Amino acid sequence: MRATLIAESIHVTPEDLLLIPDSGTTRVVQDYRYKRTGNGRIFRYGEYTLNPGEAWKGSDEPTLLQKAEHHLRHGKKYSYYDYSFRLISAWALGVVVLASPLVLAWLRRKNKRHMNSRTVA
After folding, report:
1. Which residues contact 50 (CB under 8 A, 6 or more apart)?
2. How far is it, in rounded angstroms, from Cα 92 to Cα 113?
């Protein structure tokens, strides 16, 4: 996707001016520059915390790159779905609830045919 940006003027602010005030709290960063794919696995982002006044980590941070590589080798595949007991129970209950009316209708029809064949003879 390409876009062309046309501006009539550009206003440059001094580098030491903070446009977003520092809140003084630690922040959890999800850095999508570390997104990697391979071997049927996806490492979505590198996660780290920033203390007040601390700079962003670079795109070549060794610990985050190591986490990404480890996940690509040993992490869950993106096609993996964890089938829990609750999920299996819910599906089984749903099948029973939905299949019961069908079985009852089939039995009624079968009995009706059986009764009709008795009275005809």
Report:
1. 26, 27, 29, 56
2. 31
